Amino acid sequence: MVVVGISQQQGRVVGSMQLYSKDRGISQAIEGHAAAFASIRLEGSPADTKLFTFAVRTATGAKLHVVEVDHQANAPVFPKKAVDLYFPPEATNDFPVAMQVSARYSIAYVVTKYGFIHLYDLETGTCIFMNRISSETIFITAPDTESSGIVGINRKGQVLSVAVDENTVIPYLLSNPANAELAYKLASRAGLPGADNLYNQRFEQLFQSGQYVDAAKIAANSPRGFLRTPHTIDRLKTLPQQPGQMSVILQYFSVLLDKGGLNKYETLELTRPVLAQNRKHLIEKWLGENKLECSEELGDIVRVQDVALALQIYLKGNAPQKVIACFAETAQFEKIVPYAQQTGYTPDYNALLGHVVRVNPDRGAEFATSLVKAETGPLIDIERVVDIFQSQAMYQQATSFLLDALSANSPDQGHLQTRLLEMNLMNAPQVADAILGNDMFSHFDKARIAQLCEGAGLITRALELTEDPAAIKRLIVQTDKLPEDWLNNYFGRLSVEQSLECLDEMLKVNIRGTLQTVIHIAQKYSDLLGPTNIIDLLEKYRTAEGLYYYLGAIVNVSEDKNVHFKYIESATRMGQMTEIQRICRDSSKLTVFTN
Amino acid sequence: MHWNKLIIALKAQQRTLQIFDLGNKSKLKSANMNEDVVFWKFFNESTLGLVTDTSVYHWNILDPNQASPVKVFDRHATLAVSLMPKHIKSLC
After folding, report:
1. What's the distance, CA A193 to chain centroid?
2. In angstroms, what CA-CA distances link A468 with A259, A446, A457, A474, B66?
3. In chain A, what residues touch B89 (CB-CB under 8 Å)?
4. Residues of A in contact with B55 (CB under 8 A)
5. What is residue A95's three-state secondary structure?
6. With an 8 Å Cβ cutoff, is B19 touching chain A?
7. CA A355 to chain CA mean position, Å
8. What 8-state DSSP symbol labels residue A25?
9. What pLDDT shows up at residue A569?
10. Nearest CA in chain B to A28
11. What CA–CA distance (Å, rounded) separates A389 from A372?
């Protein structure tokens, strides 16, 4: 760093500076009025060169000095510059008061006490321009990043701004043949128009005369890279390689890499041969240094060799579709949704899930769940997810996905509940049975599922679900498949009429097989169904056995004369003499017997 | 004034320094110097350069570990007491 001060000595203003190197901890006192630091990139150098420049008017003369500080080992040495600083003869007491450097142009602006401004090219020390901009002293200045110029305030309070006119500076410099080389370099450095013809001419000239490497350098340094075209690359590519030398095209790219980065097209042209030579590490290195322009095309080239590296390129090159495809390919499914949300890109989740499911079925279900449960709302239709699983016959995955997705048992997902049960009834009835047994869902199509349960042999489930009298009758007779306890409970849900119809049906279809069950049910629901109805039913099928056992269970507590009578009657038919004796003795209802 | 943040550095009696963030109305730092500060200036986005009669200090106002200015070097004899410093610049 530098501290500058001025003092009055022997009738003139002397500038004193203290230059201090923080790294080395050394101070140096130099006579000078204004100073600045700068950083420039010399042609062909891979590193920046740091410069210290200062302006001084001594008792004997005035100079602008440019010296290198902190020399970098891999950069060329910058020879010291010291050029005369012009002061008009009448301005004997004038001296430099301020100095600012434009990083873009590497031009130093020097302002003097009397309001003169001088512009110097730092690299060559050439004076580009000078003029008087203020009759008042400019007491403070600052660099203006926007215009790459300088702003200052004078004692009148005027704010002055001076900057290089980028459209005219090159033609202006070229008008003086001595400055042609400077114009040429400045155009390249700051990307200015006005020297393009010159670059083109030199390039062609060198190319024609076979100085290909020099021609390549011209193209690489051309202002705004206007010669860095696919056409140039094609021309350089076709040149024969000199024995023992790098090919011209690779030398061209290496100049560009030193200078900065490659554009998209150059990156592709460089990457192809490098990968073909199996030197992927170079691509990784350059990517790390941000020297390659990442594009979808570059990713495509790299992907063949390294998906992870391609993913990195797609991410940088903003190719979301490919990024997501790579995530999917490398099984980083959990990154897909956050990435898509972050970039605002909406992938075709249906196609994506289809892909994931094919390569990794288990993660597929997980991925599907993450899509449905995304914070911003479902990203995929549940129905489509099920379609995808079903198309791959992945019923188990579809089931676990749906169980999760439908856990809220919401009425508007009724059709999906139906679908889940349907799917399992057709492929894994025991699973459907378990789901129904858990009572998780209540909004599915009961009639349809009952039908499928019947088809799958889940008779109890079918009965529980169906409301269709014909179906109930058809099912209820299969008493061998219906647990007794369950059936007893089931009748509790039926109406009196339905119950009697069912019992009737059971006896009609298979009296031998169902009689015992019918008796038990009749006993249990005797009060509800009415003994008379039951007696009528059993008599219809002429089953004394049925009557006897049914009535035996209720006779002791019944007040109904008819029950007592029918019991004795059926006992008689069954030859149960002891029972007749007992009932005749104990029953208080028998006094009315007349026949 | 800071170059591009709403930060202002104030000096009282040439020795009492205070840094304020006007954006969130808070005081970032304050320090008392043993000597008068004759010149000071931001020379990058985080650091103030301070010149006293005898020394040059740096003060990184955004670094919470730097409570007060850190002395960098002594002023050279030629830049002696009577001299009025005008500029301070740094390469980095």
Report:
1. 41
2. 85, 11, 17, 10, 85
3. 1-2, 4, 35-37
4. none
5. coil
6. no
7. 17
8. T
9. 81
10. B76
11. 14
Which residue, A48, A63, A152, A54, is CA-closest to A103? A48
pLDDT single digits (tens) A291-303: 888 988 888 888 8
Q: How far is CA A162 from CA A138, A156, B43, B87, in A?
A: 13, 17, 21, 20
Q: Which residues contact A390 (CB under 8 A, 6 or more apart)?
A: A398, A423
Q: Which of A505, A523, A525 is nearest to A514 (CA)?
A: A505
Tell me how far CA of residue A221 lies from CA of A28, A37, A214, A291, A555, in angstroms: 37, 25, 11, 16, 116
Burial class (CB in 10 A: 0-12, 13-18, 19+), A427: middle
Window A:38-77, CB contacts with B under 8 Å: 39, 50, 52, 69-70
Q: H or E segment at A113? A: none
Mean pLDDT, residues B72-84: 63
d(CA B91, CA A300): 43
Q: Which amino acid would we find at residue B85? A: P
Inter-chain contact B78–A29, Cβ cutoff 8 Å? yes
Which residue in the block uniquely carries the two structure tokens 């198309």? A391
Q: With an 8 Å Cβ cutoff, are B43 and A50 in contact?
A: no
Smallest CA-to-CA distance from A85 within A117, A107, A115 is with A117
Q: How does the average pLDDT of chain A come out, rounded?
A: 83
A578-A580-A583-A585 Cα dihedral, nearest 10 degrees: -80
**ipTM of predicted assembly, 2 dp:** 0.78
Res A110: pLDDT: 92
Burial of A448 (0-12, 13-18, 19+ CB in 10 A): middle
Tokens of A94: 């004038």
Interchain proximity B86–A50, CB inside 8 Å: no
Q: Which residues of A touch B56 (CB under 8 A)?
A: 1, 3, 18, 20
CA atoms within 13 A on the CB side of B89: 24
Q: Which residue of A has its CA nearest to B71?
A: A22
Q: Model's pTM, two decimal places?
A: 0.59
* Strand partners of residue B88: A3
Cβ-proximal residues to B74 (8 Å cutoff; 6+ apart), any chain:
A27, B54, B55, B56
| CA A391 – CA A393 distance, rounded (Å) | 5
Tokens 């203006």 locate to A144
Q: How far is A42 from chain B (nearest CA, A)?
A: 18
CB-CB contact of A453 with A462 (8 Å): yes
- What's the rounded mean pLDDT across residues A86-101? 87
Residue indicated by tokens 């670059």: A199
Radius of gyration of chain B (CA): 13
Please name the residue that has the structure tokens 């990195």. A312
Distance of CA B85 to the CA centre of its chain: 13
| CA A498 distance to own-chain centroid | 60
Of B43, B85, B91, the CB nearest to A4: B85
How far is it, in rounded angstroms, from Cα A491 to Cα A471? 15
Token pair of A334 as six digits: 């959990």
